[in-house]
């Protein structure tokens, strides 16, 4: 199969009714993919847009952007350019931060069902597998890069993944393409460059087909990972792992390898990064075996795993919060709560907070609060939060709405009878919109 046939088959398989966004750096690989898509567009109605991410890291960055814009004009392809800034903290990897920011921009561009195209090829696949191997990755990491996967509101496709870099170079020379060379590709301080030039290069000199063989190994790992996931997911009811906590009762009877597998599968399906081996063992040995009334937490990156009773919960790290702070709110628009998101207000009929209330205070639990419950008298807020199954780490972050010094409302849980809109009256619905 030729490069053109591969791209043609890819787009035919996934639909010419889709919008394709081609990540165009101006380098050899992405220029080849752009040329192939331009050729395909003369035969099929391919809806194509090229997007260039201007990192600003090189003195040649402006030159690259102008080159990309010129090439797209020549091909009559819609060209979009996005500039990004990279803020590095001590110890951050420039490669990883740049990649994360680049894909964040690409994710924002994709519409529902759109497909992002990148020009990763077989050598990239081999480099990725070696990089993951050196990190001690498991099956999923050693599967390296899939040719097609969900991404943002659409998908991410790599139609050239089965071809070696040499074949792309041959196409570029044969079609007299002009591309930009990134001088940083020779910088051996960057991990991928080190693997490419000092490890993979000598391996290819000794075994010319080594790249193809490594890519096959990645495919075998991907198949094994998929098969294991298909076999284990129904057995442990993980189909909806992104919408529910994980029962510890299901994990405790398993041996250590199965516990690690199920934890990884659950974390992946919940959309969070998998922790390293040390953190995973902390979860398995300390969190799973903790007493029923304990509230252990394990953190990695911007992710937290917490336990409450028999359940494990995954979430983004909670932002700092001072429960003694207080906010005044006139109810005319959203009230930002930096650690939580924002309170939003909307109109109702015959429900919610009375619409004649024009000013409230937003506070947080201090302890000792009591509120009247019809037919039950005054109950402590502490006991009610337990009855309402509010998770312990959320209880001090729950906004309490005070009117005239009285606890009038807890959004989603309680409205004081004296402050509730009656039938036929206008009311205010207040809800918490979490941090995006």
Automatic annotation (TrEMBL):
Keywords: ATP-binding, Cytoplasm, Ligase, Nucleotide-binding, tRNA processing. CDD domains: TilS_N (cd01992). Gene3D superfamilies: 1.20.59.20, HUPs. Ligates lysine onto the cytidine present at position 34 of the AUA codon-specific tRNA(Ile) that contains the anticodon CAU, in an ATP-dependent manner. Cytidine is converted to lysidine, thus changing the amino acid specificity of the tRNA from methionine to isoleucine. Its main location: cytoplasm. It is found in: Cytoplasm. Residues 360-432 form the Lysidine-tRNA(Ile) synthetase C-terminal domain. SUPFAM superfamilies: Adenine nucleotide alpha hydrolases-like, MesJ substrate recognition domain-like, PheT/TilS domain. InterPro entries: Lysidine-tRNA-synth_C (IPR012796), Rossmann-like_a/b/a_fold (IPR014729), TilS/TtcA_N (IPR011063), tRNA_Ile_lys_synt (IPR012094), tRNA_Ile_lys_synt_N (IPR012795), tRNA_Ile_lys_synt_subst-bd (IPR015262). ATP binds at residues 25-30. Its EC number is 6.3.4.19. The gene is tilS. It comes from the Bacteria. The N-terminal region contains the highly conserved SGGXDS motif, predicted to be a P-loop motif involved in ATP binding. GO terms for molecular function: ATP binding; tRNA(Ile)-lysidine synthase activity. Pfam families: ATP_bind_3 (PF01171), TilS (PF09179), TilS_C (PF11734). One of its GO terms (biological process) is tRNA modification. It is an enzyme of class 6 (ligase). One of its GO terms (cellular component) is cytoplasm. It catalyses: cytidine(34) in tRNA(Ile2) + L-lysine + ATP = lysidine(34) in tRNA(Ile2) + AMP + diphosphate + H(+). Belongs to the tRNA(Ile)-lysidine synthase family. This is tRNA(Ile)-lysidine synthase.
């Amino acid at each position: 199969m030729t490069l053109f046939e591969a791209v043609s088959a890819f787009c035919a398989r996934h639909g010419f009714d889709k919008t394709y966004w081609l990540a165009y750096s101006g380098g050899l690989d992405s220029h080849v993919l752009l040329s192939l898509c331009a050729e395909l567009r003369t035969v099929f109605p391919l809806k194509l847009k090229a997007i260039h991410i201007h990192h600003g890291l090189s003195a040649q960055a402006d030159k690259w952007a102008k080159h990309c814009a010129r090439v797209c004009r020549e091909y009559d392809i819609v060209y979009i350019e996005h500039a990004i800034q990279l803020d590095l903290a001590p110890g951050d990897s420039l490669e990883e931060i740049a990649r994360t920011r680049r894909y964040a921009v690409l994710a924002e561009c994709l519409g529902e069902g759109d497909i992002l195209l990148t020009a990763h090829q077989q050598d990239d696949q081999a480099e990725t597998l070696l990089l993951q191997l050196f990190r001690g990755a498991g099956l999923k990491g050693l599967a390296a890069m899939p040719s097609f996967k969900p991404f943002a509101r659409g998908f991410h496709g790599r139609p050239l993944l089965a071809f070696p870099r040499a074949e792309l170079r041959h196409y570029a020379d044969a079609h007299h393409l002009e591309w930009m060379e990134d001088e940083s590709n020779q910088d051996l301080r960057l991990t991928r460059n080190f693997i490419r030039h000092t490890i993979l290069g000598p391996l290819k000199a000794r075994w010319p087909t080594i790249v193809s063989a490594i890519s096959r190994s990645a495919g075998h790992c991907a198949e094994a990972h998929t098969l294991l996931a298909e076999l284990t997911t129904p057995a442990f009811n993980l189909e909806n792992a992104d919408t529910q906590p994980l029962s510890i009762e299901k994990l405790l009877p398993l041996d250590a390898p199965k516990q690690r597998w199920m934890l990884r599968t659950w974390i992946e399906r919940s959309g969070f990064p998998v922790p390293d081996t040390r953190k995973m063992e902390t979860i398995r040995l300390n969190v799973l075996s903790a007493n029923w009334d304990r509230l252990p937490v394990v953190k990695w990156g911007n992710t937290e795993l917490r336990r409450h009773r028999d359940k494990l919960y995954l979430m983004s790290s909670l932002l700092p919060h001072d429960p003694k702070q207080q906010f005044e709110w006139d109810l005319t628009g959203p009230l930002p709560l930096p650690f939580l998101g924002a309170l939003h207000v909307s109109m109702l009929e015959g429900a919610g907070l009375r619409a004649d209330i024009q000013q409230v205070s937003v506070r947080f639990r201090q302890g000792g609060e009591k509120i009247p419950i019809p037919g039950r008298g005054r109950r402590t807020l502490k006991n009610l939060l337990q009855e309402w199954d509010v998770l312990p780490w959320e209880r001090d972050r729950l906004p309490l709405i005070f009117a005239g010094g009285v606890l009038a409302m807890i959004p989603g849980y309680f409205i004081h009878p004296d402050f509730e809109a009656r039938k036929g009256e206008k009311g205010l619905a207040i809800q918490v919109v979490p941090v995006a």
